[in-house]
Amino acid sequence: RILILDFGSQYTQLIARRIRESHVYCEIHPCTMDLASVRAFSPKGIVLSGGPSSVHDPDAPLLDKEVLDLGIPVLGICYGMQLMTHLLGGRVEKAEQREYGPALVQVDEPTALFQDIEREDVRVWMSHGDRILGLPPGFRVLARSDNSPVAAMADAGRSLYAVQFHPEVAHTPCGRTLLDNFLFHICGCKPTWTMKSFVESSIEALRDRVGRDRVLCGLSGGVDSSVVAVLLHKAIGDQLQCIFVNNGLLRKGEAETVERVFRDHFEINLVVVDATDQFLGRLQGVTDPEQKRKIIGNLFIEVFEKEAAKLEGTRYLAQGTLYPDVIESVSFKGPSATIKTHHNVGGLPERMKLELIEPLRELFKDEVRMVGRELGLPERIIMRHPFPGPGLAIRIIGEVTPERLRILGEADAIVLEELEAANWYDRVWQAFAVLLPVRSVGVMGDERTYEQVVALRAVESVDAMTADWARMPYQLMGRISNRIINEVAGVNRVVYDISSKPPSTIEWE
Ligand code: XMP
Fold first, then answer.
1. What is this model's ipTM?
2. Which of 24, 135, 308, 417 has the greatest number of beta carbons closer than 10 A?
């Protein structure tokens, strides 16, 4: 396995994903990881990520220099290269010009790192302010660009390699080959990390850990909790008990689908609690988005706890925590500002005195989807768009009432139906309807109408951190609008949201 030491680059997760895509297991750890822990991890290779700092900053993140003396191959990327140079006695200086964007690199020495890569005019992606002007002793220049006399360097004898550009981004077309060269030719890794092997080994590990105890799992119908449930069911069968809370704020048909798939098809022990009345009761008169989230989050815990208390002898609670959440919480950077408090079940395990089981905490989202396929989950669930915990409540701007829920539920179902029919569902990150708190005048037949407005939201994104509005075909938008206005009583106007995130957000509340 490979160890990635993170110096704060926005691309660190991409490095990990590229390596995993080559079927080699890797983990990201903060650059402050001490020498003993690095040794204990026993990596076949180490990657030093890029980062926003300069080695000359007074508080620049450093690295225990002995990490470079372990005899383990190291690949420094961007800041990782500058740090390697700085620590080993080379010279790093501020470049006269920041180099940002595409660049052409000439390869002088086709060592193992550049095997199967062109030698001239290799397209790469640069993003740096400092550059290497003096090599550390023992190093040779492997490649250069106009602005970087050392675009890549190595001390092959010590297996230390470094590149100034970013092989992990798609704008460096030869990046995959370069990373593969590092993994397979320099580190001697074998491509054994597959989701099939993951499923096999985690089933075994889950059986070992759980023994004869019982595990509780909150099923939401989303990809992560679905995969957790089916994986655990494979491992421990009837010792798994799932609870699905229907808060009445779900998409049309959602509760039925969950029952059909998990109880009928997979034969998992499943309790479905219909708490619609409780949720709607507490939401009465509430219009503030954060207030809605709090009420829904708290009531969810209440309902879940009450249901769980009926099940005796439960020791574990299973959750669908993913690797990006884990990295986020170990990163050496502070957490970013709260824009919206995302509802999750964070407080549950402590209150319920249950031990946590997180079988997916090593996986990225695309890997979770592959595991889902491996386990035979239907494609509809595997490719399902993210759906917020507070559900339709934060898509009904203003007060949530049964009537407004009906309107939004019906409009939303039409959006999804039409998207699927036009093969657009998988092309967008999320698509949904929002019910606005305004009414507009219309004319139907010869009658004046004064009814509600539905906004259509469809975005493209890779991680929900940034998003852009989807350029859906006009015809598709037209069909959706037509159907909503004709079929959903109470709506006489549909508008399309063309804002990007930032400065807007994906949801309206
Ligand atoms: P925003 O609206 O912040 O959404 O751009 C980013 C992603 O997070 C989802 N989202 C939520 N998920 N509870 C959740 O579980 C929430 O309260 C919540 N608010 C937003 C949103 O659907 C999008 O995928």
1. 0.99
2. 24
Within-domain flag for 478: yes
Residues 375 and 431 reside in one and the same domain? no
Q: Say how many Å lie between the CA of residue 331 and the centre of ligand 1.
A: 22
Residues 359, 223 share a domain: yes
**Longest alpha-carbon distance in the chain:** 87
**Spacing of C-alpha 89 from chain mean position:** 38
358 with 483, same domain: the answer is no
Total-model pTM: 0.85
Binding-site residue positions for ATP: 220-226
21 lines ligand 1 (CB under 6 A): no
Does the beta carbon of 340 lie inside 6 Å of ligand 1?
yes
Q: What is the mean pLDDT of each run of 10 residues along the chain (509 residues)?
A: 94 93 95 96 97 92 95 97 97 86 92 95 93 95 93 97 96 96 98 96 97 95 96 98 97 95 97 97 97 95 92 92 80 48 55 88 93 96 95 98 98 98 97 98 93 98 91 98 98 98 95
On whether both 199 and 179 belong to a single domain, the answer is no
Q: Which amino acid is located at 122 in the chain?
A: V
* Structural domains counted in the chain: 3
Question: CB of 143 within 8 A of CB of 99?
Answer: no
Ligand 1 centroid–CA 250 distance in Å is 14
In three-state secondary structure terms, 492 is strand
Residues 181 and 215 in one domain: no
Asked if 389 contacts 297 with a C-beta cutoff of 8 angstroms, the reply is yes
